[in-house]
Amino acid sequence: MGFDYIDEKKFKRLVKQISGTITEKDGELAPYHSIIGTGAMWCYQPSNKIMVRIRRGTKIFVLDYGDETDERCLAFTIDGTPILIEKDQIIEIGFD
Fold first, then answer.
1. C-beta contacts of 10-18 below 8 A and 24+ residues apart
2. Which uninterrupted H or E stretch holds 10?
3. Is the pLDDT of residue 68 over 80?
């Protein structure tokens, strides 16, 4: 699994969407996803190389799904925390 290359345009668009400064010229909005279940879970935060506690039900934006063989994807929580999360633990909820 590697997330060595991240689409810069998509990253900038997500940051603008999270901060609320996105405009029409920036392109389409990214749909929300939600972490399935209740309670808390631990996810790896690649930027600080630590495990962080995330509440299930938290809305996230998926930045990179990775390859088909990858079990985890790179996502941002609504507060901007980057995490790696298992693909089977999220569901797309569209636009809230």
1. 10/63, 11/63, 14/61, 14/63, 14/76, 15/80, 17/61, 18/61, 18/76, 18/78, 18/80
2. helix 8-19
3. no
Distances in Å between the alpha carbon of 43 and those of 26, 34, 71?
Answer: 30, 14, 13
**pLDDT for position 17:** 83
Name the one residue in this structure whose structure tokens are 């389409």: 28
Q: Are 15 and 7 in contact (CB under 8 A)?
A: no
60 CB-contact burial (10 Å; exposed 0-12 / middle 13-18 / buried 19+): buried
Global pTM exceeds 0.90? no
Q: Are 78 and 57 in contact (CB under 8 A)?
A: no
Do the beta carbons of residue 17 and residue 63 sit within 8 Å? Answer: no
Q: Do you know the residue count of the chain? A: 96
